[in-house]
Amino acid sequence: MSDVIDRLLEVEREARAVIEKAEQEAGQLVENAREEARRIVEEGHEEGRRRAEEILQESVRRLDEQRKERLERERARLPSAEGVDEAVLNKAADFVVGVIAGGDEGTD
């Protein structure tokens, strides 16, 4: 009978060891899963930042393109100096210089 009790105690110790090992492995699996989840989240953040940067760069490029197009349209609308009498251009230049220099030329 003592052999049976000893054997039962041994089986119980083995069972506890198996359970403890299984709990340790489960704990490690949970930790690994958490690390993997953190890594995936971080990759998602990095991908989000990368995508946001791409969108920003594309927006800047488009805005620059629109600005250039508008500048060209506005330049086309401005009157050109061609065909303006040289004396008028000189007088206008003198006037501007006078205003900037603070001289009397700007008071005509």
Q: Helices and strands in order, then pairings?
A:
Elements: H1 2-77, H2 86-101
Explain what this protein looks like in three dimensions.
With 108 residues, the chain is mainly α. The chain has two domains: 76 residues; 28 residues, no CATH class. Helices cover 85% and strands 0% of the residues. The chain has two helices and no strands. The longest helix is centred in the middle third of the chain and has 76 residues. The radius of gyration is 42 Å and the shape is rod-shaped. The N and C termini lie far apart (130 Å). The model has no long low-confidence stretch (mean pLDDT 86).
Main sheet, how many strands, which sense, barrel? none
What is the 3D shape?
rod-shaped
Q: Care to count the β-strands?
A: 0
- Count the DSSP helices: 2
Strand content: under 5%
Order of helices and strands: HH
Instruction: List low-pLDDT spans.
Output: none
How many structural units, i.e. domains?
Answer: 2
Instruction: Report how far apart the termini are.
Output: 130 Å
Protein structure class: mainly alpha
**What's the rounded overall pLDDT mean?**
86
Tell me the Rg in angstroms: 42 Å
What helical percentage do the residues reach? over 70%
